[in-house]
Structures are given as C-alpha cells and as structure tokens.
C-alpha cells in the first residue's frame, strides 16, 4: 500500500516498494527507485536515475539532482531553528551519495559527486566514482 498525493509527476519506469508516501505536487524523474517506508513530502523534486533507500525522510523544499543515492534511514531537515517561521530545504546536486543514517541540516547544498556520511568502499570503486574529487577520510585504513 502506497500513498501518492494529488498532482504528483512520476517519470517513466519509477519503481516504489511497500508503504511509500509521496506528498502532493512532488516530482520524481525517470528510472528512480524508491524503497519501502520512504516519506517524500509535498513539493519535493527528485531527478532521474536516483535510488532512495528505505526509511528515508525528505521534507518539503528538498531538491535532489540526477543520479543521487540516498542511503537507508537518511533524514533531510527543513527547519533551521525549530520552530522557525520559515522552512529552508536541502539541495543535493547530481551524482552525490548520502550514506545510511545521515542527517542533513536545513539549508545546506551538497555538491555534485559528493559523499555525505561514512562509507566503506573498495579502493577501485572509490577511484571510479570520485576520480576528480579528493575526500580525505582515510578510507584505506578502515
């Protein structure tokens, strides 16, 4: 059982697993996969070829580019100082990876091909995905 609100724009080949909530006016691009128990609130925009893993929360004003991976249980926020009278969304640019359990503060912008959170990657995969980006996390020592 999924809930898809009014005026939602779903691209071609969008796949949703069980108990997904998509709020009114959300836009989801072609070939995007949405896991179980994901909450995509009203007005959220998600690009094409994304993967949103289970139990992620995307509040209003969230914008996600193309080819973005959002790990399980990632939480985006939109209230900079609760209870703020003005919400501010999170923007994630193309090709970024948001790791499992990451919490993104209201108003931040995640740059293209960035890695947010902590991840174990094989050395070869890391080099292929982030060839032009230096991320000094000491991944070789994990």
Low-confidence stretches: 122-142
Q: Would you count the extended β strands for me? A: 18
Please tell me what the overall shape is: globular
Radius of gyration, whole Å: 15 Å
CATH architecture: 3 Solenoid
**Secondary-structure element series:** EEEEEEEEEEEEEEEEEEH
Q: Could you report the average pLDDT, rounded to the nearest whole number?
A: 86
Task: Describe this structure as you would to a colleague.
The chain has one domain: UDP N-Acetylglucosamine Acyltransferase, domain 1 (3 Solenoid). It has 142 residues and is mainly beta. 5% of the residues lie in helices and 25% in strands. It starts with a strand and ends in a 13-residue tail after the last helix. It has a six-stranded parallel beta sheet, with no helix packed on it. Strands 3-6-9-12-15-18 form a six-stranded parallel beta sheet, with no helix packed on it. The C terminus is likely disordered. The protein is globular.
Summarize the topology:
Elements: E1 3-4, E2 9-10, E3 15-16, E4 21-22, E5 27-28, E6 33-34, E7 39-40, E8 45-46, E9 51-52, E10 57-58, E11 63-64, E12 69-70, E13 75-76, E14 91-92, E15 97-98, E16 103-104, E17 109-110, E18 115-116, H1 123-129
Parallel strand pairs: 1-4, 2-5, 3-6, 4-7, 5-8, 6-9, 7-10, 8-11, 9-12, 11-14, 12-15, 13-16, 14-17, 15-18
